[in-house]
Amino acid sequence: MNTINHNQMKIQVLAVILFCLLASVNAQQSDDFPVPASFRLEGIPRIKNDDVKHLFFEPSAIKSNLIWDVDRTARKLLVTDEKNAIYSVDSPLSTPKLALDGRVPSTLRVSPTSSVVAFNNDKEDPDNYALYLWDGKSEAQKLTRFNGKDDSVDSFVWDRNGKSIYYTLNDYEAKTTKICQSDLTASKCFAVELKGLWNVIDNDQGNILLKYWKSSSNQHIYLYSIGSGKLTPLSESGNATKAFFLDGRPLALSEDSPECGGGRCLISVNPRTGAKEIISLKEVRGHLGDIKPSPDGKSLLIQEAFDGIDSLWIGKLKSKSIVPAVPNFLSGSYVVWNTRWLSSSEVVYTVENIGQPAFIKSFDLKTKKTTVWTKPRLPEVLTGTVRPPEKIRWRSSDSKEISGYIVKPAKIEKKSPVLVFIHGGPQVVDRPTFSSLDVRFATFLGLSIIHTNIRGSRGFGNDFMDADNGAKREDAVRDISSLLDWIEKQADLDADNVFIRGESYGGFVALATGLKESSRIRAVIAEYPLVSIRNYLQQSWIDEFAKNEYGDPKDEILMKKLDELSPLNNASKWKGTPLFLTRGKLDSRVPEGDVLGLKSQLRDAGADVWFIFANEAGHGVSGRFVTAAMYEFIKTHLRRK
C-alpha cells in the first residue's frame, strides 16, 4: 500500500514537472511571431513577437481601394482593397459592400447591359485561369472546362449586347491559342487555331480585335471576322500595344512603325475594304499609358505620363488627329490605375502616390467637377514619415542613362542605409506607387529605398526595352553596379550599408549582383527568383516570347555566358554574402530544383541563407511572416556605426 502511494506520488510529481515544462515551452512559443503552417523554414532564427509587432496593423488601419470595373447600369463601382476581396461602392463615399470574397481575379468585367460580372481566376489550378460568371446573387458559375493540363483563359471581353463573352483559350503546353465564345450557358471555339500567345481586346459587329504577343517590343494587332474566319493584320511592323473599336472602326496604337513615320500613331482599317488610315498623336508628348473610347464613341480618355507622374485629358478625333477637348484635370502628383468611363460624360479612376494609399475619384466632363468615391487611410505612426519620391538618373558602364526613384525617411541622421529594389518582368516599369513595406522599412529601419528601371523596362522606348535581350543580359547587371557607384557619391547615403532586393526576374539580377559585387553590398534578398536562364528555357511551356527575351536555349555559347551570371553552380564565387530566399511550391514558372539547389550550395559554402518554402504559394510568396522575417534579416545584417 505504501509502495503504491509512493509510486502514485512520484507520478503526480512528474506530471506537475511535465506540466510546468510544457507551460514554459508554450509560453516561450507564444512569444514567437507565428509561422504559417504551410511554411517550411531553414536558417531563420526565432522571431520574437515583441520585435516585429510594431510593423503590423489591423487591416482597417491602412485603407486602399482600386477599381476593378464600373457597373454603368446601376451607376456603381466594383473595387478591391488590401484584402483583395471585391466590394461594391454604390455612391461616392458610401460604405463598400462585400460582393465576392476568396477570389482574386486576373480580370473582372461587368456586362455593358446589366450588373452581371465575368471574371477569370486561378483558385482551382494556380497559374491556369478559368472563366466565371456571377449574377450578384448566387454562387459564381464556371463557364469553361479544360481538356489540356496547361489550358488558361488569359483574356476575355463582353459583346456589346451583353449576351455572350469572347475569350482566348491559351494552351501553354502546345503553345497555341483558340478563340472561343460563351453564350453564358455553353461555349464553342472557332475553327482558327493560332500559334503562340494571343489576347482578345475588343469586339464589334462580328469582328474581334486580337493582340499577338511575340515580345514586349514586338506585338501586333489583328482583326478576326467571325463570319468569314479571315484574320487581317492591322499592324505589320513596329510595336502595336493597344487597340479598340470607335464607331465600328478598329484602331490600333502602333509605335516605331514606318506607317507612323517611325513614331507612334493610331492605325485604322476599314473592315470591308481593308483600306488603312493613319491617325496622328502629335498632341501626346509623354508616355502614352492608355487610351479609352467613351461608350458613345465621341470622346477618348488619354492617360499620359511624364517622369512617372500621370495626367488625364479628353481628346476628340478630328481631321485624322486626336485633339484635346478637355485639358488635364488631374491635380497633384499621382500615379493613375484602371481608368473607366462611368458614362459617356464621366470618367472614374484610381490614384495613389508613395505617401497615399490608392483611392478613387471621378471627373464630370460637363460640370468639370471632381468627386471623391473612396478615401485612403494610413496609421498615424506612418503618417509623414517619408519624403516625396525623388527622380534619380545615373549613367551605366556603356553611358546609357538609367533612371529610378528614391524614397527617403523624413529624418536622416548622418547617412541612411540603402535598399535597392529591382522589379520583375523585366518588361514592366516601376513607378512611385504607395508601398506600405517601403514606408515601414523607411520608418523603422531608417532605410532609403531606391526603385530601379534598368534596361529592359517598359516606358523608355523599344530600344531600351530590348537592350537586355539575349547576350546583353549582363548589361542589366552592370546597371546596378553603376548605381552602386552613384550611391557612393551621395552625401546622405551609406554606401557601406547597401542591400539588393529583387522579385522574380529582378531576383535573378539581384543574385547576379551578389555574385559580382560581394564587396560592396551587405546582403541580397531574392524573392521567388529566376535562378538559371538555361534551366528556365528548358521547360516545356516556354514560348517564343521567352526565347526572344532570354535567348535560344540551343545556343550553347550564349547559355554558358548566362550561366556565369547565376550563383547556381558558382557558389565558390559567392564570397559569403547573406541571402534571404523564398520559393512557392506551386510556382510553375521557375524550376524548383534551381532554387533548392542554390539554397543548398550556398549554405554548404558557408553563406548565411534565410529560406522560406511556402507549400501553398505559387509565383509570389508574401504575408506577415515574410515581412517580419525580411525586416529581421535586414536588421541583423545592418552595419551599425
Question: Would you give an account of this structure?
Answer:
By secondary structure, this protein is of the alpha+beta class. Helix content is about 20%, strand content about 35%. The chain has 11 helices and 37 strands. It has a 9-stranded mixed β-sheet with strand order 1-37-36-35-34-32-33-31-30, with helices on both faces. A hairpin with a 6-residue loop joins strand 10 and strand 11 (about 165-170). Helix 5 (about 475-490) packs across helix 6. The protein starts with a helix and ends with a helix. Mean pLDDT is about 90; it is low at about 1-5 and about 15-30.
Radius of gyration: 27 Å
How far is the first residue's CA from the last residue's CA? 70 Å
Major beta sheet, strand line-up? 1-37-36-35-34-32-33-31-30
Largest sheet: 9 strands, mixed
Question: What's the arrangement of secondary structure elements?
Answer:
Layout: H1 2-30, E1 39-42, H2 49-52, E2 66-71, E3 76-80, E4 86-89, E5 97-100, E6 107-110, E7 117-121, E8 130-134, E9 141-142, E10 151-158, E11 165-171, E12 176-182, E13 187-195, E14 197-204, E15 207-215, E16 218-225, E17 231-233, E18 239-246, E19 249-255, E20 264-269, E21 276-280, E22 287-293, E23 300-306, E24 309-318, E25 321-326, E26 335-343, E27 346-353, E28 356-364, E29 370-372, E30 390-395, E31 401-407, E32 416-422, H3 436-445, E33 448-453, H4 462-465, H5 473-488, E34 493-503, H6 505-516, E35 523-527, H7 533-537, H8 544-550, H9 556-563, E36 579-584, H10 592-604, E37 609-614, H11 624-637
Parallel strand pairs: 32-33, 32-34, 34-35, 35-36, 36-37
Antiparallel strand pairs: 1-37, 2-3, 3-4, 4-5, 6-7, 7-8, 8-9, 10-11, 11-12, 12-13, 14-15, 15-16, 16-17, 18-19, 19-20, 20-21, 22-23, 23-24, 24-25, 26-27, 27-28, 28-29, 30-31, 31-33
Helix pairs in contact: 5-6
